[in-house]
Specification:
Number of domains: 1
Distance between the termini: 36 Å
Order of helices and strands: HHHHHH
Oligomer: single chain
Number of strands: 0
Helix content: over 70%
Number of helices: 6
Largest sheet: none
Radius of gyration: 21 Å
Strand content: under 5%
Length: 192
């Protein structure tokens, strides 16, 4: 008896519909997470700070494990030092999450600004595609939000991460939803 791949034998259009369905579901989840972050910005900011703390600790462990792989004294020393820096940062975020929120707020502003620039660049590369204007809209919103958080830092750190992450998630979810619906429309037109 032979086993087959789950995608083997299925028409490409059925696979395309499945992919667009998951894309739309992910977009709706982005929208819901965005709304929750906007409603409870302090909780969302605290959650982000704790998540970053744990990610830094997991990164430290990965670097310590990487140090045992050898590769010469320079590589081992670099892995251990990087692991120590990650561990200090992770412990800092977990033990002082409110101070960590201030640091994250400034970093978030930089990331949102960079994301806005990349979205606008993506728009210029995709401007002939259906609903590509949503990508430009997303990029402009991200530039405005990143500029706002940078301008008001550090006084707005407690609410800024939650609100700005929420709005970014909401707009990104709406953008991806529009693109997913356009892709679904295209798949339906091809299958008809």
């Amino acid at each position: 008896m032979t086993t087959t791949n789950s995608t083997q034998g299925q028409p490409p259009l059925r696979e395309a519909k499945k992919v667009t369905t998951w894309y739309i579901v992910a977009a709706v989840l982005f929208i819901l997470l965005g709304m929750i972050s906007i409603i409870e910005p302090a909780v969302a900011a605290l959650g982000v700070a704790l998540l970053v703390g744990w990610l830094l600790i997991f990164g430290a462990v990965a670097h310590f494990i990487g140090a045992f792989r050898g590769g010469g004294a320079k590589r081992v020393i670099f892995q251990v030092l990087t692991g120590v820096v990650y561990m200090i940062g992770g412990v800092y975020f977990l033990s002082h999450p409110l101070l960590g929120i201030g640091t994250l707020t400034l970093l978030l502003a930089a990331f949102i600004l960079a994301g806005g620039v990349l979205e606008i660049v993506s728009f210029f590369r995709l401007r002939g595609e259906a609903n590509s204007g949503w990508i430009l809209f997303n990029g402009v919103i991200e530039l405005l939000l990143g500029g706002m958080i940078w301008h008001h830092w550090p006084s707005s750190s407690v609410w800024a991460i939650g609100i700005l992450v929420g709005v970014t998630l909401l707009v990104t979810g709406m953008t991806r939803l529009m693109l997913g619906l356009a892709a679904r429309k295209l798949v339906n037109a091809v299958s008809a």
